[in-house]
Amino acid sequence: MSSTPAAAFSMFEGSASPNLVRNLLIGFSVIAVVVVLILIWKMGRGFSLTSLALALILGGALGNLYDRIRFSYVVDFLEVHIVHYHWQTST
Q: How remote is the C-alpha of 73 from its chain's centroid?
Protein backbone atom coordinates (compact mmCIF):
# COMPACT_ATOMS: atom_id res chain seq x y z
CA MET A 1 0.00 0.00 0.00
CA SER A 2 1.33 3.37 -0.97
CA SER A 3 1.37 6.16 1.59
CA THR A 4 1.91 9.02 -0.84
CA PRO A 5 -0.92 11.39 -1.71
CA ALA A 6 -2.57 10.19 -4.88
CA ALA A 7 -6.00 9.77 -6.36
CA ALA A 8 -7.75 7.00 -8.26
CA PHE A 9 -5.46 4.88 -10.41
CA SER A 10 -2.43 6.53 -8.73
CA MET A 11 -3.03 9.91 -10.36
CA PHE A 12 -0.67 12.55 -8.93
CA GLU A 13 1.59 9.89 -7.39
CA GLY A 14 5.17 11.11 -7.32
CA SER A 15 4.11 14.73 -7.58
CA ALA A 16 6.75 17.38 -6.92
CA SER A 17 4.49 19.00 -4.32
CA PRO A 18 2.63 16.29 -2.37
CA ASN A 19 1.23 18.75 0.19
CA LEU A 20 -0.44 20.75 -2.57
CA VAL A 21 -1.93 17.57 -4.05
CA ARG A 22 -3.17 16.46 -0.61
CA ASN A 23 -4.78 19.84 0.04
CA LEU A 24 -6.41 19.90 -3.40
CA LEU A 25 -7.81 16.40 -2.86
CA ILE A 26 -9.11 17.40 0.58
CA GLY A 27 -10.74 20.45 -1.00
CA PHE A 28 -12.33 18.29 -3.68
CA SER A 29 -13.69 15.94 -1.00
CA VAL A 30 -15.17 18.86 0.95
CA ILE A 31 -16.86 20.16 -2.21
CA ALA A 32 -18.23 16.67 -2.95
CA VAL A 33 -19.63 16.36 0.58
CA VAL A 34 -21.30 19.78 0.36
CA VAL A 35 -22.81 19.07 -3.07
CA VAL A 36 -24.20 15.69 -1.97
CA LEU A 37 -25.59 17.18 1.24
CA ILE A 38 -27.37 19.88 -0.80
CA LEU A 39 -28.83 17.24 -3.12
CA ILE A 40 -30.04 15.17 -0.18
CA TRP A 41 -31.54 18.28 1.45
CA LYS A 42 -33.40 19.17 -1.76
CA MET A 43 -34.82 15.64 -2.04
CA GLY A 44 -36.71 16.05 1.21
CA ARG A 45 -37.49 13.49 3.85
CA GLY A 46 -38.87 10.83 1.52
CA PHE A 47 -37.04 7.58 0.93
CA SER A 48 -36.10 6.62 -2.62
CA LEU A 49 -33.36 4.76 -4.42
CA THR A 50 -31.84 8.12 -5.32
CA SER A 51 -31.68 9.21 -1.67
CA LEU A 52 -30.14 5.86 -0.75
CA ALA A 53 -27.53 6.21 -3.50
CA LEU A 54 -26.72 9.76 -2.40
CA ALA A 55 -26.36 8.61 1.21
CA LEU A 56 -23.89 5.91 0.13
CA ILE A 57 -21.92 8.45 -1.92
CA LEU A 58 -21.91 10.80 1.07
CA GLY A 59 -20.58 8.04 3.31
CA GLY A 60 -17.78 7.28 0.86
CA ALA A 61 -16.87 10.95 0.46
CA LEU A 62 -16.80 11.46 4.24
CA GLY A 63 -14.67 8.35 4.68
CA ASN A 64 -12.20 9.55 2.06
CA LEU A 65 -12.10 13.01 3.64
CA TYR A 66 -11.37 11.50 7.07
CA ASP A 67 -8.59 9.30 5.66
CA ARG A 68 -6.99 12.20 3.77
CA ILE A 69 -6.99 14.43 6.85
CA ARG A 70 -5.86 11.76 9.32
CA PHE A 71 -3.46 9.64 7.23
CA SER A 72 -2.75 11.89 4.20
CA TYR A 73 -3.96 9.08 1.93
CA VAL A 74 -7.10 7.02 1.44
CA VAL A 75 -7.16 3.49 2.80
CA ASP A 76 -9.10 1.31 0.38
CA PHE A 77 -10.16 -2.24 0.93
CA LEU A 78 -10.59 -3.68 -2.57
CA GLU A 79 -7.96 -5.81 -4.20
CA VAL A 80 -8.85 -7.71 -7.34
CA HIS A 81 -7.06 -10.73 -8.81
CA ILE A 82 -8.24 -11.96 -12.21
CA VAL A 83 -6.04 -14.70 -13.69
CA HIS A 84 -2.63 -12.99 -13.87
CA TYR A 85 -3.97 -9.43 -13.54
CA HIS A 86 -3.65 -7.77 -10.17
CA TRP A 87 -5.45 -4.53 -9.44
CA GLN A 88 -4.93 -3.00 -6.02
CA THR A 89 -7.12 0.02 -5.47
CA SER A 90 -5.23 1.47 -2.51
CA THR A 91 -3.91 4.96 -3.18
A: 10
